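Lab notebook, bench 4. Still working through the backlog of constructs that have no structural model yet. Next entry is a single chain of 190 residues. Request: give me the structure tokens for it.
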Amino acid sequence: MKVKDIIKSALVLIGREDVARSIEKEEESETASLTAEEKETVETLLYCFNSVEDELARCYFPLKAEEALTSEDGVYSFSGFTERPLKIISVTAKGKKIKFEADVRFLKTDAKEITVLYRYAPPKKSLDGESAFGGEVSERLVAAGTASEYCLICGEAAEAQAWESVYRGEIDRLRRKSINRTSFPPRRWV
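Model written out:
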């Protein structure tokens, strides 16, 4: 999903189709540009989008990465990871799980070559960026959360609550769907 498409959807949800059209015109021609008020609206929505994407990754739909790393002294700085780690799930060396120590800035093991599986927070996106989510996490879900945050910032409490309920409803629907996919083995003793 493109961030720009999510922002345009959120603009439609909050009743600012004019700004969404201005973004489309800006894409089509190099001469058209957004007004100062439209730029401020888009920047605020972008801020809201980044907050929603971060919340989704931290609380509901974790993003995972696996990475092979090497170090001469067994100390692996988190700044050297491709993504920003939130939680280390496992560390393996030569296919076997190994013990590790995690500090605020680094991961320490006895191995010089490791593979780390971890959860991460998505980086901040620009308007031309790509969302960290796709597939089941729909554009509608992210746009509703973005619209809710925007309305809250603007002091539109009733509208913020309405979009928040759509956002939470979509999250609940997806979480129920993933629980339903869980299968239990048949009871052989019955």
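Notes after review: The chain has a mean pLDDT of 91. The longest strand covers residues 84-93. Flag for follow-up if needed.
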